[in-house]
Predict the 3D structure of the following.
Amino acid sequence: MDSLSSSEQREFQSVLEKRQTRDMMQFYSNLVQRCFDDCINDFTSKALSTKEETCVSRCVDKFIKTSDRLGQRFAEQNQAMMQGGGAGGAGAGFGGR
């Protein structure tokens, strides 16, 4: 990053921020779509039933915890590869837990 000029660094930062915003919006959209599809099934009322509210709450919690855990595992795998683990271990450890 030090080899970039000031204007190139600003442009790089702008591109990075736009990508992070896009990724966050995609994450949110996937979360909403998934939990809606799984939990909302009574369209006779504009209000959520207690069952639907509970389902949505659990769905959101599980979705976020799963995403966090996957992020941790990817970071662990990346660190292992950077420390000489090589590409052979790239998928190891994702199943069986």
Notes: The chain has one domain: 6-81. Residues 6-81 form a domain with the Helix Hairpins fold (CATH 1.10.287.810).
